[in-house]
């Protein structure tokens, strides 16, 4: 695949510190409009993650990106990625191998979503997770402030064995609450993966289809041998590293579909007194 992914920098972003119940992380904010929490992928808030964040902010959202691991703004490298992955895999916050797990970081993300919802327009906020944080978007959707969740190539739990391959990345209690909210509150979930991505097995999305029904929208890009777009066999980051700003590019279309999904769910309700 020729070309490079869209990137950006931390220039123009406001930095703050968000703390709840003993957990604190720096957060970066930009834009105006309905709120979106965008969680980074490994190894952190890379230029490619910032490219997606800037695209959403320019598209009319208030975007908040928490720094959960790595060095914000730093370009990825093999050494940096290995160090971050090693720490993240043993972190209690992520519980990378745990089945049916309520992961501690999810409570902090829900609090961040509530804070953003309280100060931005619209009926609620969206949460986007990428790779290691993909399943946290689902876990965040337990909270009533979240009306749209995007699970971008969710890789937790690491898919070692059949049970982990099918695990949706949150506890059974949380998944039941998410399913209930799709029925009662109009919550919608969007998932994105490459068909050949071993880190994000098809079994995981099959679980979400079975449990969420029509409330689960799915983007699956062909990365099999000889695929028309030329994606490599290790293609993983649907919404960031694999995007090319070229007409008809499948990952670019996936990014646009994601932005439209958020826009459709989070657009402010019309003022009953207007008109």
Automatic annotation (TrEMBL):
InterPro entries to which the protein is assigned, alphabetical: AB_hydrolase_fold, Dienelactn_hydro, Dienelactone_hydrolase-like
Keyword set includes Hydrolase: yes
UniProt GO molecular function: hydrolase activity
EC number: 3.1.-.-
One Pfam family this sequence matches: DLH
Dienelactone hydrolase domain sequence ranges: 32-166
Top-level taxon: Bacteria
Keywords, sorted A to Z: Hydrolase
SUPFAM superfamilies: alpha/beta-Hydrolases (SSF53474)
Enzyme class name: hydrolase
Protein name: Dienelactone hydrolase family protein
Annotated organism of origin: Streptomyces toxytricini (Actinomyces toxytricini)
Lineage summary: Bacteria, Bacillati, Actinomycetota, Actinomycetes, Kitasatosporales
